[in-house]
Write a structure and sequence with these properties.
359 residues, alpha/beta, Spore Coat Polysaccharide Biosynthesis Protein SpsA, Chain A, Serine Threonine Protein Phosphatase 5, Tetratricopeptide repeat, two-stranded antiparallel ribbon, 14 helices, 17% strand
């Protein structure tokens, strides 16, 4: 059976670090915590799980801190998490089993990252990450901010999920790091341009975000998933500043990089629904229901747009066209995903009363 070192970097995580470590402790053989300047009870909580706690002077470089943490590991493989991540019990058990079965020829194991959720606990944002890597390969983290783990070799996609439990308030830390780098005259990579644009969008600096998304796309050197994501985020920016024409143009722009994705189909469906062009809206919403993303996909995906949402909107479209039986069928499909959704239940009651009258 292989052994695993959990390596984490933390700062002022007293609200989440205990839950994180409790959720994973039984599945790892070593816990290494690198603290970058906590002033709360983070270290005290961590020391109830491990004595391998190290200080690292913060230098506005996440990759440097993570690489330092990885250098402290002594086991066969290294697992990394953030302090507001957990493994649910079933996923922790899967990891325990993986350790028993894992062949040492494997260089990296990926896991799904469930990053955001709706009010019913269903994922609304998920993607894959290399989570468990062979220590002797000395894989390195790249990038001062929004860092990534550069991995190659024999990569296995697991069915283990890491669950994000974000409790932090919005911070301008990352934005300031980017701005300081610009002031120092640093040349941004395409990846830097993309993530700087994301920070600008998050801080409602829409026009400047548009500028940097366009700069990123103009390089032609970004990861295709980031290029597609940029089109969606450009559409968000144009929506916020009231430019509907550019918003629609940004949605169609995504088709340059790949076949239509479900979230963009839903955007188009919503656009035509609002213009009372129900047949056209139906076309796009139906297409969204047919575009299932594979479980091993690396891109960012919102399962909402290929599950309940297009069916709920199809219900609206067909109802307005007077096709109540078809509207009811789609509402029932939406209800199969969200059985407690008040809108779905209201539709059910409304449509059943109409269908009863028509009998």
């Amino acid at each position: 059976m292989v052994t695993v070192s959990l390596c984490m970097i933390v700062k002022n995580e007293e609200g989440t670090i205990g839950s994180c470590l409790s959720s994973i402790a039984k599945a790892v053989d070593e816990i290494i915590i690198v603290d970058t300047g906590s002033t709360d009870q983070t270290k005290a909580i961590v020391r109830t799980f491990t004595d391998k706690v190290y200080d690292f002077k913060w230098i506005d470089d996440f990759a440097a801190a993570r690489n330092f943490a990885f250098r402290q590991a002594t086991m066969d493989y290294i697992l990394w998490l953030d302090a507001d991540d957990i493994l649910k019990e079933e996923d922790c058990n899967k990891l325990v089993k993986l350790k028993k079965d894992l062949d040492l020829s494997v260089d990296s194991v990926t896991m799904v990252y469930n990053y955001a959720f709706d009010e019913y606990g269903n994922p609304t944002s998920r993607f894959r990450r290399n989570r468990l890597v062979k220590r002797e390969n000395n894989f390195k983290w790249i990038g001062a901010i929004h860092e990534y783990l550069e991995v190659k070799g024999n990569i296995v996609n697991s069915d283990i999920s890491v669950t994000h439990c974000r409790v932090h308030h919005k911070s301008d830390r990352n934005l300031k790091i980017f701005q300081n780098r610009l002031m120092r005259g640093e040349i941004f990579t395409p990846r830097d341009l993309y993530y700087y644009a994301n920070e600008l969008l998050d801080h409602q600096k829409y026009n400047k975000a548009i500028t940097y998304y366009d700069k990123f796309l103009a390089t032609g050197k970004g990861w295709v998933e980031d290029e597609i994501s940029s089109c969606g985020k450009l559409a968000d920016c144009y929506n916020k500043i009231g430019n509907k024409e550019k918003e629609l143009e940004s949605v169609f722009r995504s088709f340059r990089y790949d076949s239509p994705r479900a979230d963009f189909c839903c955007r188009l469906g919503f656009h035509f629904l609002n213009r009372n062009l129900y047949e056209t809206a139906i076309f796009w919403y139906k297409l969204a229901t047919q575009l299932k993303r594979p479980d091993d996909d690396w891109g960012f995906s919102d399962p909402t747009c290929s599950t309940w949402l297009p069916h709920l909107q199809l219900c609206v479209c067909y109802d307005r066209l007077g096709h109540h039986e078809t509207a009811y069928e789609h509402n029932e499909k939406a209800r199969s995903y969200r059985p407690r959704d008040s809108s779905v239940l209201q539709n059910k009651k409304y449509l059943e009363s109409i269908l009863k009258k028509n009998e």
